[in-house]
Amino acid sequence: MLVHPQFSPIAFEIGPLAVRWYGLMYLVAFLLAWTLGRWRIRHGKTALTARDLDDLLFYSVLGVVLGGRLGYVLFYKPAYYLAHPLEILAVWHGGMSFHGGLLGVLLVMALFARRRGFRFLQVGDFVATLVPLGLAAGRLGNFINGELWGRATTVPWGMVFPQAGDGVARHPSQLYEVGLEGLALFALVWLFASKPRPVGQVSGVFLMGYGFFRFMVEYTREPDSFLGILAGGLSMGQWLSLPMVLAGLALFVWARRPAPAA
């Protein structure tokens, strides 16, 4: 049995400024996306330019933060925040949703594509290759903070999270997510996108891959205490992932349709 190392949530301090690990992981995520995006542009893997990438990432930061926060409010605690609306702004108390962040980025992508004259799915295929390593960084931040721990387990690598307050060995589900939603998904999408594909297929693979990996990891992740297990014995994360798998499959099949006759 292992015990969580209890890292300090503060990575370093500069005078009165305290830089927290979780915020640092967001910075790492966007730096990785920028680096990978520049590589794809340099190697002719996309029609987007370096300026397009810079602008897209800038607005995507807003989409992730605003969408992630509003998604958490609407998907997980709507009644609480309806009663305490000012706390919606208290992001320092935690509470972000990947699925909400995804919706925020999709909105940014739609506006960006329209203004720059790209097809929405053309932008989506480009962005899909940049996201997974950023997800890995975010989940690593969750592990460092000792939050979003897993369910009780007897496996040899079970870990006690003192923040849980019960001394029970649990799955380090954050690290499972680093491996599956981050590294494995990156390898899957990057390799698939290494060859020319019909527009929309890379996006479809990303949606299917993330939805499937997240659905499976949720079996080891402790459900939110204020929600518990929902209908069908599934968690909220699983219910939100199922539409992603279905949408990804539909998009993948749709992208393979024969081109209309001239």
TrEMBL record:
Keywords carried by this UniProt record: Cell membrane, Lipoprotein, Membrane, Transferase, Transmembrane, Transmembrane helix
HAMAP family referenced in this protein's UniProt entry, alphabetically: Lgt
EC top class named in words: transferase
Pathway where this protein functions: Protein modification; lipoprotein biosynthesis (diacylglyceryl transfer)
Residue sites binding a 1,2-diacyl-sn-glycero-3-phospho-(1'-sn-glycerol) per the record: 139
Family: Belongs to the Lgt family.
Top-rank taxon: Bacteria
One cellular component term from this protein's GO annotations in UniProt: plasma membrane
Name of the featured protein: Phosphatidylglycerol--prolipoprotein diacylglyceryl transferase
GO biological process: lipoprotein biosynthetic process
Alphabetical list of Pfam families matching this protein: LGT (PF01790)
InterPro entries with a match to the protein in the record: Lgt
Cellular localization per UniProt: Cell membrane
Keyword Cell cycle: no
Membrane topology note: Multi-pass membrane protein
EC number: 2.5.1.145
Function: Catalyzes the transfer of the diacylglyceryl group from phosphatidylglycerol to the sulfhydryl group of the N-terminal cysteine of a prolipoprotein, the first step in the formation of mature lipoproteins.
Matches recorded under PROSITE patterns: LGT
Single GO term (MF): phosphatidylglycerol-prolipoprotein diacylglyceryl transferase activity
Species this chain originates from: Pigmentiphaga kullae
Annotated TM spans: 20-36, 56-76, 88-112, 175-193, 199-217, 229-255
